[in-house]
Amino acid sequence: MLKGLHGIQQTFFDLHLILGVMPSLLRVGLPNTIILALSATLIGIVIGLIIAIGLISSRRPVGLLCRVYVDILRGLPHILTIYLIGQGLPLAGLSLFGHDTYAYAALAIGLIEGAYMAEIFRAGLQSVDRGQIEAARTLGMTRAQTMLLIIIPQGIRRVLPPLTGQFILVIKGTALVFLLGLTASQRDLFSIAQDSAINNANLSPLTAAGLIYLALTVPMTYAVNAWERRLRLGTNPRARTAL
Prior knowledge:
243 residues; mainly alpha; MetI-like fold; 11 helices
């Protein structure tokens, strides 16, 4: 029993290795992970909003194309999509970013997240009161003006907590970009930890990376949950009275 516990401690919680890899994780891995997550999220928001508008479009071909995009990107394993885009586009001669694998990684994750965010945006856009839309049309607004000035601002505001929750998933998803062979200066948390774990034949560096991931995601998760509860209470007078 004691031998087994000692083995677990040595394999996963070697303090010397954890402290040794932590500076690289914080100095290189953490900034790269955050930059990659923010870049991918921005791409996902833009794509997701465009696809969401297409999903609720009255033009059937447009809605069908957008639905195919969402179903494919949500149906494929993330690791496969990242590999196909990050390695496949340059091999196919579509060198959009030259040899910058970091940009391909952001694009791949952004395209994946765009499919998920499209459904989030769609739900938000469709939640806007129909009466407001009809009132805008009565005032002479065109369909495009109604979408831009009435539907989109309200729809986005209503889905901010789910979008923030999706950002947490993006942070965790950045661990998959090690497949693309990042340079030393581009390595994320997982890449640095994995290299150290292989070099030392010990998984403690991965534990160190896990601790940083938890420090990022757990507080954000609780913050998003609290935000959602506040929004629910804010729109439910009975709930506020009960409290």
